[in-house]
Design a protein that fits this description.
It is a single chain. The protein contains eleven helices and eleven strands. By secondary structure, the protein is an alpha/beta fold. It has three domains: 79 residues, Arc Repressor Mutant, subunit A (Orthogonal Bundle); 101 residues, Periplasmic binding protein-like II (D-Maltodextrin-Binding Protein, domain 2, 3-Layer(aba) Sandwich); 106 residues, Periplasmic binding protein-like II (D-Maltodextrin-Binding Protein, domain 2), CATH 3.40.190.10. The strands form three sheets. Strands 3, 4, 5, 6, 9, 10 and 11 form a seven-stranded mixed sheet that branches. Strands 1-2 form a two-stranded antiparallel ribbon. Helix 8 links the parallel strand 7 and strand 8. The radius of gyration is 25 Å and the shape is elongated.
Length: 298
Amino acid sequence: MLINPRIITFLTLAETLNYTHTAQRLNLSQPAVTKHVQALEEEFETKLIIYENKQVRLTDKGKELIPYLTSLVKLNRMATDIFQTKEDHVQIHLGVCLTLGNYFINEIIDSFYEAYPKIELVVYVENTRKLEAMLSKNEIDIALSLGPTAQLNLNTKTLKEQEMVIIAAKDNPLLGQTLSIEDLTDKKIYLREEGAGTRDVFLLYLNKYSLSLEDFSMIKTAGSIELVKQLVSKGDGIAPIYKLSVEKELENRTLRILPVKEFKISYPITILTPKNVALSGTTQLLINHLIIFIQQNL
């Protein structure tokens, strides 16, 4: 399936704002670039580009047209990837942070396979820092995270916010008390390992109150969410954790939410993709599927 080359020329010129660079990038002559743009202007019956004083700028109509034409090109790539592939199926390498991977990745995989049976998902469940490293090395195509990223080489798209709570055992003596975050500095707190999004988000919260882990006397590290929950449920420790990962325990009351004044944290599920790498049509399909699934189910 071929997209109108005039559209590619216009989008490239809109990006470079330079006829020479556009011609070089597309392996065209400058007069050909001009003719493509003029033909598109005739088709839409409006001026899209203004060239004066040796400078190129977009008209308001030209700016309005860009997102629509960009979507058209992306859809064309998707169709090309899926329907013109010579393979029986194609693969997408998806990374998922541990919180999301442990609690609803199976539902995502099932719904995606139902919609796109020819596309195989290869799924990696790791903490956020590991996923960022894998994206930077092009070991995965896309990642879902629940923590902040400082990587400048990654694109981010934020989705639905997820609430973080502090959990305690059902018989923890702290339940029923009125506590502030400062009151917890001498309490046993279980945190995920370095690189986990849950830990990073909690540290950001502490920073708002001019606190750090050094202000807490009993910080314990656990390398998985399930281990955190087990340790808390059997002892006197507490832990910050995303609510979606303890819904079952809260429902059957084996764990309780510890009320802490002004402890209101939420962080969005984020789609991470590498910058300066053109996404395949199949990857874009997965992104669209994830956006819809997460908005409807979380």
